[in-house]
Amino acid sequence: MKKIILSHFLLLFFGSIYAQEVTKTPNVFLITIDGVRWQEVFIGIDTILLDNKKYSHKKEELLKKFGGKTLEERRKKLLPFFWSTLVDKGQIYGNRTKNSFVNLTNKMVFSYPGYNEILTGEADDEHITSNSKIYNENVTILETLNQQPQYKNKVVAFTSWDVFPYIINDKRSGVPVNAGYMNATGNHLTEREIFLNETQRQAPIIWESVRLDVFTHHYAKEYIKKNHPKIVYIAYGETDDFAHGGLFDFYIKSLHTTDTMIEDLWNYVQNDAFYKDNTYFIITTDHGRGVGAEPESLWTSHGKDVKHANETWLAVLGPNIEAKGEIENSPQIYTNQIAETILKIIGVDGKGSNLGEPIISITH
After folding, report:
1. What tens digit of pLDDT does each residue of 1-12 get?
2. Which of 119, 128, 210, 286 is 20 to 30 A off residue 234, Cα-Cα?
3. Which of 302, 285, 278, 279 is nearest to 338 (CA)?
4. Alpha helices per DSSP H over the chain
5. How many Å apart are CA 286 and CA 32, to the nearest integer?
């Protein structure tokens, strides 16, 4: 009897120690906003596109909501979370007017290659040459972390674009991916998850391959509240599709809404004991776009032949991130450095790999 009691005590004791260690290991939210240009992030609403009647149909409405006398005022109206909380407590890279440069290393300059580079830390121009639904042979950071004992089965992805199960290779990696118009599944769905399942296809379906970001956001948030995953990848997608359609009004409004949704997530984790003071946000994009209405650099387009489309940006926020704000005169940064930065944050040694160097230093 004493041996049974002792064994139960030891099981509870060491189980408690392991649970504490898992809780102490850092959490990371990787967030991407598809096809958002650095110009909107750092300058605010583009007045040239605003004046182009082909792309902007509600100029006065956009000016009233997002206009301002200075670029600082305009960008804060467009992205209030970025230019208040994030700039005050984190770091934002990519303002090329202040000699801060972020670029892709892949030569394709569209979504699948861009997300592969973000998630694996390495471009693969030989094998990833389209957005086709082909399972990625490369191992993503999500799969790598899902093999770590303290992150096992605590990694998840919620995405608006339905190609992500293939990019992340959910079958091989074991990482759950809720993408496109997938429903929440399981035996213990919350009332909100049931509501989202019932309504996501009742809302306007603009693109069959990309659901509205509001559903992706709330599916993710509900899962986070219920399961407390430690590594969360959220990929918002509307902005790129609105831009491809030449719908500048919708592109701008969607970007503003995405900023409010990221703020909603940040506020949640700061008020949840599991995440508070132990959670990092990394926010970026998969590619840039052209800069105007000229054929060689259309803002509606991207790809290897579109000038400036490989120009991107990056923001980081978290407990051990030095509050440097908007970075000026920084060394060149590349998208392939993001995966190694995540490993640096959680304290996993990625040396010896082909990953880019970590962007920031972390004090554990």
Report:
1. 544 444 444 344
2. 128
3. 285
4. 2-24, 38-43, 47-50, 59-66, 71-78, 87-89, 111-120, 141-146, 164-168, 170-173, 191-199, 213-227, 238-244, 248-269, 338-346
5. 7
Tokens of 124: 């693969």
Read off the amino acid at residue 135: Y
Angle at 73 between CA 84 and CA 102, to 5 degrees: 65
What gap in Å lies between CA 227 and CA 216, rounded to an integer?
A: 16
Cβ neighbours of residue 158 under 8 Å, at least 6 residues apart?
177, 178, 179, 216, 217, 219, 220, 223, 232, 233, 234, 235
- Token digits for 30? 């990787």
How far, in Å, CA of 305 to CA of 269, rounded?
Answer: 41
Structure token pair of residue 188: 């213990």
Using alpha carbons only, what angle is made at residue 109 by residues 75 and 302, rounded to the nearest 5 degrees? Answer: 60
> Cα dist. 325→86, 89, 93 in Å?
7, 7, 9
What pLDDT was estimated at residue 179? 98
Predicted TM-score (pTM) of the model is 0.93
